[in-house]
């Protein structure tokens, strides 16, 4: 049996609000939590596999040119060395979650510093590392590498789909009562997931098993099979625990392909784990950006024009570019619009999805510009935003689905004590500290992705959930368990949720904030499938069926679930597909951030004192894990505002700060008590469970609340992120 739903029309029933068991939404602890804190959750590197060998990637020592020769004899005779592998197939760049998208660049063509070009395999990790260090390479360097996206001799590409010219922005700017025309720059960011990328490949005949750390197993199987030139059926990926991804594990990385090729050759399992430096050099970066914001408003602050023109970068030939203007399209009105993205082609590592691609930096800068407009117009920043919430989509004839934007602004202002803010900068002091308050809006597009799950209701009245969905620290184990419990009337200890095995039904995976609502919907449908069968057995309508506490009732009858199962296992399959609801309405999630920042008048050091985020993302499936996502997003927002930046050597484009000592992320002392408020919302257009994505929302504008507070504290508007003290003083 399969219960299939293509989301062509909004949901008409809110079953989860009518069930006797209401675990969904509660802050239930993660069922996988005890395993994680006791070290028994097995992460990719930790699998004990008989005969395991170790591979270390060798990186290009130049940033553009040719690899002429690898002198394998240079490490012959070193202890433990089992082989040196170099193959064009390694060089498939990390794809964007879909197969066949990324170009394969031969190993002989070097296009960025640190590009993986070979793998040295040895009996131990140390031997392999030594071999990789000693291996002699002959390279021919070109002198025409390009590293600066704003270099005057570059002509960036203009992707057709990202050029919007509506009305006449120049005229709107000329006629406006208030204008802003500012250019901001944001630096490159690294996902810096706590668990470095790792793959252990082992073959049995022509069957490959890869223990890896990946976000989207269904796509990763295809990508790996495609890279190796084998059928996807021959590849199994296991990724039950993932120590953070933030986009860097959406697509397979070179280590997976290299491990698979080497393991096949030497006939033993090969484990390749990236070092932290390799994560910084080989895994995708979030592109830096230059963003010019033009806002034109009438005397009431209503936008008449909105310009958001961006320059980002990537390697030559890569199809991805940071979708900086994604939320600018729908969040505010203004009929004269110029939104565009240009892409500079550089010899720096691949740019790709890093948490909340697009909105993370796009909303941050748009919300800085809105703060500038509030300042020049004298209109309160909260009121300015509320006054610019459009009735219908400003670019397309399309309404919005549930949109608690104004509610999030009001709720945040009230809870934060926004009325105590002095709009005049530099007026509040606490000893040598200047104090300021700032706010920003949050917005992120919402999507649904195809997802499948299987639920087995076993004859003893317990259930197993199976899907190749992943839990990248986000709480998938918890929410899928909760949904299954409610739908089948079971307790959490009666449900065993199994994830991250490509042999299970193919799920959305974790990315783009689609995982919870998509995979949750598939489990919901699989359970509905089972409910249909139980209702049939009981002789009642499915609508009447009540499952609670191990009992089934309906149509005036009540029996124990075990009796109804009669020694059999009922298997239900759920299959959700996106449909027309994604095209008919603009679906998005919204929120607001409020921050109080202290800036030292002597040193320029900025310290966030408190921060609040209020978010609406449809039905919240678990208040604890959803809140944690928002805390993580806001923490990253603080990092983006004050600390984080990848620095590239202007001479050869190599990453200078390639570890967590030099790439600064916020630490405990940088993060005050954060407060998160989740609004009650149901979005029937989004999914049959009325949930939307929340994972990335907490980052979509967060940094702007901090830098807007710095302006309020000091009168200094930092337009080059991060706002380090040298820029504030
Ligand atoms: Mo996300 S950057 O789509 O994992």
UniProtKB/TrEMBL annotation:
InterPro entries: Ald_Oxase/Xan_DH_a/b (IPR000674), Ald_Oxase/Xan_DH_a/b_sf (IPR036856), Ald_Oxase/xanthine_DH-like (IPR016208), AldOxase/xan_DH_MoCoBD1 (IPR008274), AldOxase/xan_DH_MoCoBD2 (IPR046867), AldOxase/xan_DH_Mopterin-bd_sf (IPR037165). It comes from Henriciella barbarensis. Gene3D superfamilies: Aldehyde oxidase/xanthine dehydrogenase, a/b hammerhead, Aldehyde oxidase/xanthine dehydrogenase, molybdopterin binding domain. Residues 38-143 form the Aldehyde oxidase/xanthine dehydrogenase a/b hammerhead domain. This is Xanthine dehydrogenase family protein molybdopterin-binding subunit. It comes from the Bacteria. SUPFAM superfamilies: CO dehydrogenase molybdoprotein N-domain-like (SSF54665), Molybdenum cofactor-binding domain (SSF56003). GO terms for molecular function: iron ion binding; oxidoreductase activity.
């Amino acid at each position: 049996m399969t219960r299939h739903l293509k989301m062509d029309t909004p949901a008409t029933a809110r079953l989860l609000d009518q069930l006797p068991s209401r675990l969904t939404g509660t802050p239930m602890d993660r069922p996988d939590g005890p395993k994680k804190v006791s070290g028994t959750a097995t992460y990719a590197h930790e699998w004990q596999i008989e005969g395991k060998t170790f591979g270390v990637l060798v990186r290009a020592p130049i940033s553009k040119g040719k690899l002429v020769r690898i002198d394998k004899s240079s490490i012959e005779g070193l202890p433990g060395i089992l082989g040196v592998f170099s193959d064009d197939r390694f060089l498939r760049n990390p794809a964007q979650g879909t197969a066949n998208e990324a170009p394969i660049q031969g190993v002989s063509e070097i296009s960025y510093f640190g590009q993986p070009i070979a793998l040295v395999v040895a009996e131990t990790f140390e031997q392999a590392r030594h071999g990789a260090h000693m291996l002699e390479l002959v390279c021919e360097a070109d002198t025409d590498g390009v590293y600066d996206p704003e270099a005057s001799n570059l002509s960036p590409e203009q992707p057709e789909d990202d050029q919007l010219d509506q009305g006449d922005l120049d005229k709107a700017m000329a006629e406006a009562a208030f204008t802003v025309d500012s250019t901001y720059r944001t630096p490159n960011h690294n996902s810096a997931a706590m668990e470095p990328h790792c793959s252990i490949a082992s073959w049995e005949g022509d069957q490959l098993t890869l223990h890896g750390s990946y976000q989207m197993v269904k796509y990763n199987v295809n990508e790996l099979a495609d890279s190796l030139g084998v059928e996807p059926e021959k590849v199994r990926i296991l990724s039950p625990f993932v120590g953070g991804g933030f986009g860097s594990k959406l697509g397979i990385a070179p280590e997976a392909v290299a491990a698979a090729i080497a393991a096949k050759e030497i006939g033993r399992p090969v484990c390749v784990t990236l070092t932290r430096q390799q994560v910084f050099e080989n895994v995708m970066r979030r592109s830096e950006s230059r963003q010019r914001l033009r806002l034109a408003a009438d005397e009431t602050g209503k936008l008449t024009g909105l310009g958001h023109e961006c320059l980002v970068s990537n390697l030559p030939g890569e199809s991805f570019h940071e979708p900086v203007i994604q939320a600018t399209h729908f969040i505010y009105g203004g009929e004269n619009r110029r939104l565009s993205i240009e892409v500079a082609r550089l010899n720096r590592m691949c740019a790709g999805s890093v948490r909340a691609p697009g909105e993370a930096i796009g909303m941050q800068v748009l919300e800085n510009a809105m703060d500038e407009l509030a300042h020049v117009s004298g209109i309160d920043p909260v009121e300015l935003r509320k006054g610019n919430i459009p009735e219908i989509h400003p670019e397309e004839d399309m309404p919005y689905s549930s949109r608690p934007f104004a509610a999030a602004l009001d709720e945040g202002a009230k809870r934060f004590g926004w009325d105590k803010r002095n709009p005049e900068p530099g007026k509040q002091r606490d000893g040598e500290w200047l104090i300021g308050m700032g706010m920003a809006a949050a917005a992120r597009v919402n999507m649904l992705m195809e997802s499948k799950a299987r639920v087995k209701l076993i004859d003893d009245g317990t259930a197993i959930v199976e899907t190749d969905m992943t839990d990248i620290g986000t709480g998938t184990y918890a929410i899928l368990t909760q949904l299954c419990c409610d739908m089948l009337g079971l307790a959490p200890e009666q449900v065993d949720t199994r994830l991250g095995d490509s042999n299970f039904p193919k799920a959305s995976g974790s990315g783009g904030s689609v995982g919870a609502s998509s995979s949750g919907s598939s489990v919901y449908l699989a359970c509905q499938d089972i409910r249909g069968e139980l209702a049939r057995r009981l002789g009642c309508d499915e609508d009447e069926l009540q499952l609670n506490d191990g009992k089934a009732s309906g149509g005036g009858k009540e029996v124990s679930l075990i009796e109804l199962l009669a020694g059999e296992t009922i298997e239900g399959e759920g299959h959700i597909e996106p449909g027309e609801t994604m095209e008919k309405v603009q679906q998005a999630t919204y929120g607001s951030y409020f921050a109080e920042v202290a800036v030292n008048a002597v040193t320029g050091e900025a310290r966030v004192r408190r921060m609040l985020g209020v978010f609406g993302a449809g039905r919240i499936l678990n208040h604890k894990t959803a809140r944690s996502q928002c805390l993580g997003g806001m923490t990253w927002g603080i990092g983006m505002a004050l600390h984080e930046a990848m620095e590239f050597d202007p001479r050869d484009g190599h990453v200078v700060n390639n570890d967590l000592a030099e790439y600064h992320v916020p630490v405990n002392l940088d993060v005050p008590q954060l407060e998160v408020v989740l609004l009650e919302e149901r979005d029937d257009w989004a999914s049959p469970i009325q949930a939307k994505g929340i994972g990335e929302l907490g980052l979509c504008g967060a940094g702007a609340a901090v830098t807007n507070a710095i302006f309020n504290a000091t009168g200094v508007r930092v337009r080059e992120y991060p706002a380090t003290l040298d820029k504030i003083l």
